[in-house]
């Protein structure tokens, strides 16, 4: 026996609400199996739900569009920081720079490996360390490191830091939009549940099969269980109840 299930996507929720409103407008209050009160509630709710969904979608799309550029900035700043530290280490091994000067960069004099640069926070930390360290060492009379020069490292570091902050703000906005949508989903589900209960109650005396046939006209969706679909030779999507 087919069973009803509340919509599980925003598009399906919107469709269920819009069908009920459209049928009310076409048939009139006397010819629909639900109250004028719930239609007014649905009509007032739909614009808020549509706007919240649109804002969330736009925010996600904006994040996605900017992400490729941001990932390229992450790759570049990681490469420049790594290369600078490698050149610094080579300069120390050639005795062009005293190994103890590495302490200015928060690096250990006897450790010639590149520190972990796998996360954004580590890039921020080590970028600052080497920029501050190079500034302190050259201020004391040391010859600047070239290829890459710290000025080049700083350009990529500043671009990365600016984009990192922008990304944080963008994610915060997206999370806020999502929270708004999630709250409205609860309201949408409550409206749809009330609406569908009214529809089925109005046709309850007709028997289950006829009631469901009538109810479909007003937006209720019924599903066959997995075993029922298999018995009829219908495809099984995987999310049906057993």
Which structural traits does this protein have?
242 residues; mainly alpha; two-stranded antiparallel ribbon; 6 helices; rod-shaped
Extended strand count: 2
Walk across the major sheet and give the strand order.
Answer: 1-2
> H/E order of the elements?
EHHHHHEH
Separation of the first and last Cα atoms: 12 Å
Q: β content, as a range? A: under 5%
Please identify the structural class as seen in this structure.
mainly alpha
Q: Describe the biggest sheet?
A: 2 strands, antiparallel
The radius of gyration is 31 Å
Provide the low-confidence segments as ranges.
none
Summed over residues and divided by their number, the pLDDT gives a mean of 93
- Helix proportion: 55-70%
- Name the overall outline: rod-shaped
* Total DSSP helices: 6
Short description:
With 242 residues, the chain is mainly alpha-helical. It contains 6 helices and 2 strands, in the order βαααααβα.
Helix-strand blueprint:
Elements: E1 3-4, H1 10-27, H2 36-93, H3 120-139, H4 150-202, H5 208-216, E2 222-223, H6 226-231
Antiparallel strand pairs: 1-2
Helix pairs in contact: 1-2, 1-4, 2-3, 2-4, 3-4
